[in-house]
Specification:
Order of helices and strands: HEEHHHHHHHHHEE
Radius of gyration: 24 Å
Amino acid sequence: MIQNIRKTILLLVVLFWETTFFGATGTGTYQFTVHNPDTTVIVKKADPVYQFSTKKMIIPAVFITYGLLSLMVEDIKNINNSTQFEVSEHAPKHIVYDNYTQYAPAAAVYALNLFGVEGKHNLRDRTLIYATSQLIAGAIIMPVKYLVKEERPDKTNNLSFPSGHTATAFSSAHFMFREYEDKSLWLALSGYPLAAFTGIYRILNDKHWVGDVITGAGIGILSTELAYWLFPKIDHLLKGKGQKTSTLVYPFYQSNNVGLGFTRKF
């Protein structure tokens, strides 16, 4: 009797947990199992990549804060000026590769999938996530550029802060990281050197100050994190309320243990 009551309570708790948290997103799969006599509970939770975490915001926050300080704090402004002075002294040849490398990590994700190296998501889902990240980045960058009106090092216009190229590059690199972090860490990290190349050459091409580039990197990473967090909600809206779900509650006997299994797919 006590075991049956315990099983019933545990099942109700998981059902409440599923309705409150999983039901809000409409995506994911988990399994709940109760074993006798020790009443073991096994739960496959939602992928943490979709969950908001303050830890994920630390690097973007540091980068963006540095960039904002570079607009106001004289000592940090001097880093901008001294770096650009060094660049002008050596006068490196301007290249246009940074116009293309900003997209390279995202392109690599699609190419790898095409050749059978699958990431976390299928074509439809990863495209939705990447497009969302670019919309978020653009929605942040363009208003800030026109609000701050910082002059570019080459004096072509007043839209230097923050660097849009760098934001695109780092959002693409972080997109690649999230897609492949569970498969291969080295593969997942391989997009960041390309993103760094893009940022460095925005400085060498006399288009941005150091603070612009660091801020762009922070915005890029932030936009991708927000895109993954929003994905289950957007996906649920696009699929609509008519999407079918399946629930299965079943008894089982295994290794002298009697249990109750609960599986929910949606």
